[in-house]
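Structure record:
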Amino acid sequence: MPQLIATVKGVEVKHVYLHKDRTTLGRKPGNDIVLDTMVVSGQHCAFDLVGVADVYLQDLGSTNGTYVNDRMVKERTRLNDGDVIAIGPYRIRYLQASEEPSTFGGTQAFMPDAPQLHASFTVESGSSSGLEVPVVKAVTTFGKPGVSVVSVAHRRGGFFVTHLGGASAPLLNGQAMGSDPVMLSDQDVLELAGTRMRFQLRE
C-alpha cells in the first residue's frame, strides 16, 4: 500500500497509508493529513490513488506551493517511488509499497525475548499535576502552538525529543534544547511552556 512519511529536521512526525481515492493535506482540521503551521494552506494539496498503487499529487492553489524533488508542482503529477515532497518545513517521502518485514532464511524474524518498553510523562506542575500521559504513538506532540512545541518519536533505538517550533525553547534537565533530536532517558525532566513533565520508562 502506498505511504507517506513526513519529517521535520529529520524527525518523523506523521506516517500515513494512502488507501482512499483522494487524501487531502492542509492546515484546516477537515483534511485527512493536518499540518498545523502557517506556511501550509488551509487546503494545500491532494493525493489521488489510481488503481492499486499509482498516486498523483495535485496542488490545490496553495499560497506557498508544493514541491517534488525541489521542483514546484503546477499540474497533476504522478509520483515515483522515493520522491520527496517539500511543503514549508516538512519533507514528505513517498513510498509506493509498504516495507516488507525482515526475514531470515525465508521466515519472518521475531524477537520475543526483547523487553517491550512503555514510556510516559508525568506532569509535575500546574493544574494537571499528577497526570500521566502515555507515549504510545510513533510520534507524539506536546506543547502550545506558537509558544513551544516538541515531538517525541519512538524509534528502534529509543525515544527522541525534538523542538519543533515556538519562540520559547523547551528545557531538558534545566538546559535549553537546540534543534537536534535528543534521546530521552528514564527520569529526564522536560519543561515546556511553563509545564514540568518527568519522562519514565518501564518494561
In short: Residues 99-115 have pLDDT under 50 and may be disordered. DSSP finds no helices and 23 strands in the chain. Residues 13 and 53 are 23 Å apart (CA to CA).
